[in-house]
Amino acid sequence: MAKLSLRGAVQAVWTLISNSYVAGFIQGKIYKGALKQICVPGLNCYSCPGALGSCPIGALQAVVGSWEYKISLYVAGFLMLIGAAVGRFVCGWLCPFGWIQDLLYKIPFIRKIKSFNLDRPLRFLKYIILLVFVILMPLLIIDIIGQGMPYFCKLICPSGTLMGGWPLLLTNEALRDTIGWLFIWKNVILVILVFLSIIIYRPFCKYICPLGAIYSVFNPVSFYRLKVDKKTCIKCGLCSEVCEMNIKPYETPNHPECIRCGVCKKACPHKAMRFGFFQNG
Amino acid sequence: MKGRLWITFAVAFFSVCLMVMGVIRGEVGIVFKKAINVCLECIGIG
Question: Which of A1, A13, A225, B43 is deepest in the core (most CB within 10 A)?
Answer without folding.
Answer: B43
